[in-house]
Amino acid sequence: MTLTTTTAENGKATTVKTTFHRETSVSIDINADASIVWALLTKASDYPRWNSTVTSIEGNIAPGGKIKLKSTLDAKRTFKLKVLEFEMNKKLVWGDGQGKRVYTLTKNNNGITFSMTEKIGGLMFPMYTKMIPSFDKSFEQFADDLKKEAEKMMKSK
Question: By CB distance 3.0 to 4.6 Å, which of 17, 34, 86, 88 could disulfide with 63?
């Protein structure tokens, strides 16, 4: 089986599906310093203020930290996640047994390019895939919310 990936336009999510996995990605250019975006991504208590896709988040977004997250995609479910990688101002990874979400910040001419990718799946994935909503709109909203807040903070710096 061959996987094809496409380069998405700025801020538009793409999803690649296979029998046992689904991977959704979005990236967007943000005219702000990486430190501003990083501060937004790592301050759990502040997420519901700026991020319309998160209804609550508790815990410590730090190396080895544990997080309890509720999102608008499934308001009744609490995702219990662990911080798996933490490279300041560059890369953050959290996940659980079903998947991983990777955030990356890459310097560009006007600030940074923010990328978010989540891969979910496993051997049992075909049995529950139909119950998992599409992440595309939520990813696009997350990226847009982050861009707006980071650029607002950059202007007031």
Answer: 86
